[in-house]
Amino acid sequence: xxxxxxxxxxxxxxxxxxxxxxxxxxxxxxxxxxxxxxxxxxxxxxxxxxxxxxxxxxxxxxxxxxxxxxxxxxxxxxxxxxxxxxxxxxxxxxxxxxxxxxxxxxxxxxxxxxxxxxxxxxxxxxxxxxxxxxxxxxxxxxxxxxxxxxxxxxxxxxxxxxxxxxxxxxxxxxxxxxxxxxxxxxxxxxxxxxxxxxxxxxxxxxxxxxxxxxxxxxxxxxxxxxxxxxxxxxxxxxxxxxxxxxxxxxxxxxxxxxxxxxxxxxxxxxxxxxxxxxxxxxxxxxx
Length: 287
Prior knowledge:
The chain is of the alpha+beta class. 18% of the residues lie in helices and 37% in strands.
């Protein structure tokens, strides 16, 4: 099996979020995909299959289980299909539904891939805040009480935790195995602390993403789905707006910095979200 390695949300190999991309997977069983993802070891590997409903079908696997949707692996897969097979993908079938995607080559020569996500949903966190802080290695006082802790989803549930200061992020040491006992409402959710201070002057928000223990990984370097729901959180709980474009930075604390561009808009009672980022080829793996 040949796996193309792509780094998403960056134009520099070795940065951003790595994803494995595997072509022509129609003859693979679910068990074979899961085992391959475990051997590859990236936070997500995307397997490309034929689709009767869209241009391509994508299935996403962590080393531990299958995901309904994955932002960075989708962007990696679309870029790989263009570079390796000269295919321009507009629609992607996922377990979350049909996702619209687009590739834009700018005058600067940079190529950005955008993908729409499912309308954002939120649910208030009703758990123990002190235990939550302990589970990511910080103190309860580091959490910003002026903003709500919310479960959020644009296809995958994560817990959004507002943090007061940027310097707290480098002190975080997650105990992922403790998450289910703290996240009693959604025990399989990931954890996503964020703040409004940033390293990059062009960014609006900063985040880290700690994996659900069921995923078999600890931290996701630069997270597309969580950044998308951060945009919806911004206009819902930070500044009441009908639409907003924001830039989200992530990965600085683990040497894998990347940037995600989020567009969120209130339409017909929904919070519609689109994310955009780059992706770069970073080599091949053979199993």
